[in-house]
Amino acid sequence: MTTTDLSYVPRSLVHAADGSVTFDGVDLAGLAARYGTPTWAISASQLEHNYRTLQTALSRRLAKPVIAYSMKANNNRAVVQTMAGLGAALDCSSEYELALAMASGVPADRVIINGNGKSPTYLTTVVRMGVWQINVDSMAEVNRLESIAQRLGARVRCAVRLKLSYGRLLENDPSYERTLRVAEGKFGSSVESGDAEAVVRAIMASKHLEFVGLSHHAGFPGYRADFTAERQLMHQTLCAQEIVDFAHLLRDQVGIFPQRINVGGGLRSGRSVYLSSPGNGTDGEFRALPRPEDYADAVAAGLAKADWEPVVQFETGGFHVADAVILLTSVQDVKDVTRPRERRYVTLDSAMTMFTGRGLNRVGHPLVAVGHRPDARTHPTPTELVGPTCAYDSIAEDIGLPDVQEGDLLALMNQGAYCEVLSTQFNALPRPAVVYLKDGDARLVRRRETLADIWARESAILDLWPEGAGA
Ligand SMILES: Cc1ncc(COP(=O)(O)O)c(C=O)c1O
Q1: Which residues sit opposite 262 in a β-bridge?
Q2: 397 CA distance to ligand 1 middle (Å)
Q3: Which atom of ligand 1 is nearest to the CA of 220?
Q4: Which residues line ligand 1 (CB under 6 A)?
Q5: Which of 50, 93, 118, 422 to mutate to test ligand 1, by most ligand atoms within 8 A of the CB atom?
Q6: What is the number of the ligand 1 atom nearest to the C-alpha of 417?
């Protein structure tokens, strides 16, 4: 049986000896009574703690680090505003994210623009706004950007998104080929083929474009069965080294070098990931996550040979929000079965549609039973937490839980990264409310969806079945 890693609870969550639980100083039983369940709760203090921890780790090792919060991980405006207020720049990956960023009051000159296949409307908007930097994906994009900038009489700061050769990485770890094939295919311009250099030259040849840097995103590999922190860190170091090598080559052959190096994101808050085969229920295993200090060391080691002092941009997303959000959810049903094996099924009012499973399974100590003492005895039957949708909808398998009853409240942790943004309305389930907590206060920042929201985009109810046709 899988044991839960009890070593990690976000510092904003306190489970008192009497069983009561607070998150950012707010009592969770009271919060559920006021806003209902399921509800996502964001801790402002945890966001702040995560940002400062990473900022400190980076500034101890690098002269000019900049964190650009990658808003795809969680685009709630309260989160975006908090991150901007802390001093973070912002990484946007679509025109819609950009619109949300603007609506949150983030100045355009703090925004990095990412994405492949950026539409002409998107490019026109960013050129008009005068963003901090566009990470240009391809030669075709340079051409589109050039004609838009020329038409608008604007000058645009461009970094070139690289598809590295990964030669050294694959030498160290040939198994990485599978990941690269999947993750790297569509992004950036290839260093190996000479495309990246051609893109840099085209930017330099333009009166309207300015070459400012090189970018790369190694990503979070914590979903791979062979994930280890060491492997991830080795990847970060070797990618940063390859960017530096390419920068030196540009200086020698093209006569320019990047003032900015963008190493993407890929870090998570928490202490470990939980890897298992879904539906197996017995093969789960915790693996340690890299700490922010290790990550900063790895990137700094990769940049050590740079003989200039670049601004180093980090587009971290998941790290800031992962453990800063919980999902408050109620037990709807408890069912004990003996076949095909002895199991207790605890059905919640939250579901995989809220993307709970992946978040929950990723980091140690995934949940707290509110109102049950921290030392409460675990119910002897292995428990599966499931959602109410018609899919298997497993949220956690083979876990230990106290003897919970219908109506009990659970706080599922680590629900901040890629949960709400990937949530759906499968089975016409409305999405939860979102509340923002800070030092004992709670504010509703996104109301719960209603059925009316679910059909809000429909324009007419069609009279497809004339009376009697279906009889
Ligand atoms: C270009 C880019 N930057 C940053 C990120 C954020 O990554 P993470 O949330 O793992 O830090 C992503 C995520 O996919 C990305 O594609």
Answers
A1: 215, 313
A2: 28
A3: 10
A4: 70, 72-73, 91, 114, 217, 219-220, 264-267, 315-319
A5: 93
A6: 9
- Measured from the CA of 265, which atom of ligand 1 is nearest? 11
Domains, the chain: 13-42+323-450 (2.40.37.10), 43-322 (3.20.20.10)
Q: Which residues of 331-364 are buried (b: 16+ CB within 10 A; e: fewer)?
A: bbebeeeeeeeebbebbbbbbbbbbbbbbbbbbb
d(CA 260, CA 442): 39
| pLDDT, mean of each 10-residue run, the chain (471 residues) | 58 97 98 98 98 98 97 97 98 96 94 96 96 98 97 98 86 78 78 95 98 93 84 92 96 94 95 74 79 97 95 98 96 95 94 78 76 95 92 84 96 93 95 98 98 89 68 53
* CA 129 to chain CA mean position, Å: 26
